[in-house]
Design a protein that fits this description.
Elements: H1 2-7, H2 13-79, H3 81-87, H4 92-109, E1 118-123, E2 128-133, H5 139-154, E3 168-172, E4 175-184, E5 187-194, H6 195-199, E6 214-216, E7 222-225
Antiparallel strand pairs: 1-2, 1-5, 3-4, 4-5, 6-7
Helix pairs in contact: 3-4
Length: 232
């Protein structure tokens, strides 16, 4: 190579072509590399904005579904004759008939509340629990939540002893739930859902191999992520 440059004149056409190609190619390669990195950043930002908008949309849907379930509970408390009969029956036959009618009514309605795993009515005086669940709820989970509800509501003698006037978070076993309970006389009427049920639609969002969507409590504690793993 050294001999080549010694023999070649810097004014030769060959050297001028090589130098010209160098000054043309290097800026083009630099521009191409910069353009690729810029395009990657643009795409990444667009995907990030799109995912953020989808998450906001799904969170709005979760709030809407919880509001709809709460309205259903309030409707039972204020307008349902069978609830009144369960609270103050004339005899046991009237109580059992009202309980049956409510079971049928809730079973027919729960299919419209995809984000809710169960509705329940607990009679404090009789220590009697009626619950209607989605088909996706396992028997073991049903038993565990029923055990909690009976134990907790048996000791809640007034509305002031309920956690809040809104939906609240409760960890039962290793699973996080959101619950809503309203007291009406001797009855506690409510609904519950697993945190993973609420977060279910988020699994439809492609967040990449390292991306996760979390559902957290009002204290900032994580409840569940889009891997459908309950967080302890």
């Amino acid at each position: 190579m050294r001999e080549f440059f010694q023999r070649a004149s810097w004014n030769s056409i060959r050297i001028k072509i090589i130098i010209g190609l160098f000054f043309v190619t290097v800026p083009l390669l630099t521009l191409l590399i910069y353009s690729n990195y810029y395009s990657i950043d643009v795409v990444r930002n667009q995907v990030s904005i799109s995912n953020k908008n989808l998450i906001s949309l799904y969170m709005g849907q979760i709030d809407t579904h919880l509001d709809a379930a709460e309205k259903n509970i309030l409707g039972l408390v204020t307008n349902n004759y069978n609830v009144q009969s369960m609270e103050a029956p004339n005899d046991d036959d009237e109580y059992q008939l009202a309980k049956y009618n409510l079971s049928v009514n809730l079973s027919n309605n729960i299919i419209f509340y995809k984000s809710i795993d169960a509705f329940f009515i607990f009679n404090h005086e009789r220590q009697d629990l009626l619950d209607v669940l989605q088909h996706s709820v396992s028997f073991s989970e049903k038993t565990e939540v029923e055990k909690y509800l009976i134990s907790y509501l048996s000791h809640a003698t007034s509305s002031s002893e309920l956690p809040t006037a809104n939906w609240y978070v409760k960890k039962i076993g290793d699973t996080n739930y959101v619950l809503r309970t309203i007291k009406s006389g001797s009855l506690y009427i409510g609904a519950w859902a697993k945190a993973s049920t609420l977060l279910g639609p988020m699994n439809l969002i492609d967040l990449g191999t390292k991306g996760r969507a979390l559902l957290i409590t009002s204290q900032g504690e994580p409840m569940v992520n889009t891997d459908d793993r309950q967080l302890k």
